Amino acid sequence: METKADQASNPPQAEAEQQDDATLALDLRIRLLECVFAGALPSSDAFTNRLSSEAASKKSLALRLERVLGQLTTILGTKPNEAIRRFVQSYDLNEPLLHLPNPLSSNKEAEPLSISEKASLVFEADAEIVQLERDLREIELLDNRGFVGAGKLADGDWSEEELVTSVIGPLQESKTTIDELEQRATTLMSRYDSYVNSLSEIFVSWDSILTTLEEDIHKLQIAKAS
User: Fold this and answer.
1) Cα(9)–Cα(197) distance, integer angstroms
2) Segment Disordered: which positions (predicted)?
3) d(Cα 140, Cα 132) in Å, to the nearest integer?
């Protein structure tokens, strides 16, 4: 077992572990940026290979960071993105909020936010705060009008028998009534069509009778004149 004396006698090992923690934290942040700008995360195998040696790790981190910065410049230059542009422009103001917590000082109490940090949070959430205020006003208005609780519906203890009696029964009766009304409407339309056809036949007969009378009268007038 390693004693405290052995740990004290190996300060380079402790420093190397702290340096590995810092390298790991930096690598994780670069991976996040790669995911945001490139749309994909590197594989775990590639991540393990990058940390296989200290020199290769530092070189890989530098190259990847340079590539991420180039992608950011390309996005801002050729593909305007208002959200990213505002983030970059106000980076100095938001920078204190972007630091990852140090795992070595996890027990340390969080420091209170400064006035500028609080103001930045409020300004960033301005649209959400305004929308929340409108929603709360609408909820209050609906509550005052008695719409929020849907009357006394939520207070009722509805059993299956009560639902059958109060809901399903009237619905079935309404369906029966609707079917009867549809049948009556169909019968009325059929009778209406029959009446229209009868009237059409009557008008045709009248036209034929009147035409025959006119011809007979015309013949009588000719015979009388001669």
Assistant:
1) 116
2) 1-20
3) 12
Of the pLDDT bands very low, low, confident and very high (cuts 50, 70, 90), residue 13 is low
- Is 128 exposed, middle or buried, given 0-12, 13-18 or 19+ CB atoms closer than 10 A? exposed
- Whether residue 103 is predicted with pLDDT greater than 70 in this model: the reply is no
DSSP state at residue 52: S
Instruction: Give the orientation angle of helix 115-124 with respect to helix 126-144, to 10 degrees.
Output: 60
Q: What is the pLDDT of residues 114-165, one digit of tens each?
A: 887 777 787 788 888 888 888 888 888 877 776 665 556 556 666 677 777 7
Q: Secondary structure of the chain: what % helix, strand, coil (to 5)?
A: 80, 0, 20
Q: What is the residue type of 135?
A: D
> Kindly report the CA angle at 132 between 128 and 135, in degrees rounded to 5?
140
Reduced to 3 states, what is the DSSP secondary structure of residue 81? coil
